Amino acid sequence: LEEESFKLAMKAVALDENDSRCHGALGDAYLWRRAFVQAEHHYRRALELNPNGPTELATMGSACSYLGRPEEGIRYFLQARRVDPYFESIWYWHLLGIAYFNARRHEEAVATLDRSTRPPPPMLAGLSFSPGFCSSLCSCLSIDRPCADASVDEAINARLIASQPEDREKI
Asked: Does the CA dihedral 144-155-71-53 come out positive or negative?
């Protein structure tokens, strides 16, 4: 399925190299392949083609977060909502929360993830925080099991992308 998605995204860009959605899809495909330079290239191209598109801005924010530049990513996420205050894609709050977490802004991560309709990301499980943070995070996000119960396999199976070695080490 991943290979087929990649081929279709490549074909989409070949058919219309001036469509931001095609470049965004190819950026996603490259990101899942951990081809970070290519992913960022296509996300940036999507943003060049549609600089005021909230989807393009938020997607670039997510990419920056995964590429180890979460503060830059947060700026893109917030710009998406400034451009369109009603923009609330199903993935927006979830990925913004991850960006806050990657920026080590844990309180903002918790508050943002609480707005998400998606389950909390596995990357939040089992990490060392200040005393009591993990318990309050689990409580805030309605996680039934203690954070320490998450395993590395769960994070890997969730296809968590972390380009920075220090982030991968915490999974």
From this structure: negative
- Contacts of residue 28, Cβ cutoff 8 Å, sequence gap at least 6: 9, 39, 59
AA identity, residue 76 = Y
Nearest partner of 63 among 87, 30, 110, judged by Cα: 30
CA torsion sign for 84, 85, 89, 94 is: positive
Q: What is the pLDDT along the chain (171 residues), one digit of tens a residue?
A: 789 999 999 999 999 999 999 999 999 999 889 899 999 999 999 999 999 999 999 999 999 998 999 999 999 999 999 999 999 888 899 999 999 999 999 889 888 888 887 766 665 654 434 444 444 455 554 444 334 333 333 333 333 444 555 655 544
Determine the distance from the C-alpha atom of residue 5 to the mean position of all C-alpha atoms in its chain, rounded to a whole number. Answer: 19
